[in-house]
Amino acid sequence: MPQRHIPQRTCVACRSERPKREMVRIVRAPDGAVGVDSTGKRSGRGAYLCLQPACWQTALKRHALDKALKTELSAADREALTAFGAAQATGVVGDERQERG
Predict the structure, then answer these.
(1) What backbone torsions phi and psi does residue 71 show, to the nearest 5 degrees?
(2) Which top CATH class is 8-82?
């Protein structure tokens, strides 16, 4: 039986390619709002980051998310993404992708 295709995505910070379910999608919605897309299905321009704290810091420091999303992140967006990245590192945020199986 042939193996099922597993979608691969590239982290905008470290440029490593991993399965889509191991990454977090950041999306710029059509109205310009930037946020974390936990389902991976929100409409808008998306960029992927690894779960590693270093990738979140690098992406925000080097403006990799700004470039990938083709927008300038506001201070509030940066704070929210920094907080989410820190919560992911400490395991505070529930990982919904594992529940979907």
Answers:
(1) -155, 165
(2) alpha beta
Using alpha carbons, select from 38, 17, 47 the residue that is nearest to residue 99.
38
Give, for all 101 residues of the chain, the pLDDT tens digit.
Answer: 788 999 999 999 999 999 999 999 999 999 999 999 989 899 999 999 999 999 999 999 999 999 999 999 999 999 999 999 888 878 765 544 433 33
Q: Give, in order, the Cα–Cα distances in Å from 25 to each of 1, 5, 39, 75.
A: 31, 19, 8, 19
Phi/psi for 39 (5° steps) reads -90, -25
The ranges assigned to domains in the chain are 8-82
Between the CA of residue 14 and those of 68, 77, 84, 87, what are the distances in Å?
A: 13, 21, 18, 20
Q: What are phi and psi of 7, to 5 degrees?
A: -60, 135
